[in-house]
Amino acid sequence: MQNKFQPKGVTSQVVLGLMVIFVGLLFLLDNLDILDTRRAVSFWPMLFIIVGTVKLCDTQTRGGQLMGTGFIGLGVLIMLDRMDIIDFNWRVLWPLFFIGFGVYTLYRARTGRRMMSIDGAKGEADLGGDGVVDITAILGGFDRRVFTPNFRGGEITAVMGGCALDLRNSSIQGEAVVNVFAFWGGVTLKVPPDWTVILDGTPIMGGFEEKTIAPPDNSKRLVVRGYAIMGGVEIRN
């Protein structure tokens, strides 16, 4: 059975590369006095747009799509405000973030196995026969031990927060793919000593680090893909 969490890594990397080239060209044209883009295109709004676009291209879940759309929307609002097209007042609009986050939380609550944290979560979780994780940590920490006889991967998102997932009591039947997204945050995975870890991530002012001992065979493989944007991803056993 094909893993439905198989990430679209090539597509997201192409999109990221094209967007970075586009931003670089805009700044170059501005420095050459060919195009005046400094007011509209600055580091912070473009950062949110790039992060949101990468998240949209690299996610397989509805929650990830909502988060990516939110980042893009925030970046667009800031850019329009800098261009004097709209008056973006944080004091007036900040309650919308609570409303949006509440809607996001309700959506998560209706989807059973998905796990989420905004202020801290610890404990154990039995994934059962599903064997898939879908974790989001925003402005908080997520620390949990999960166990399943057939871990199949999933998606982990850490935004200005941290996620520590202990998989040492789990097993893999063949290969599992975990798609990670760490933005101003960190993800730590603890895996059994008989798992082979394959890193296929893209660090952007961040890092991917593997601290594992090579197992005697490659019968159980964990593939870790995704992005670490000003954040870090660590896998150890």
From TrEMBL:
Spans traversing the lipid bilayer: 12-29, 64-80, 92-109
Domain of life: Bacteria
Residue ranges that the Swiss-Prot or TrEMBL entry lists as coiled coil: none
Domain spans labelled LiaF transmembrane: 15-111
This protein's UniProt keywords: Membrane, Transmembrane, Transmembrane helix
InterPro entries: LiaF_TM
The protein's name in its UniProt record: Cell wall-active antibiotics response protein
Source species of the chain: Telluria aromaticivorans
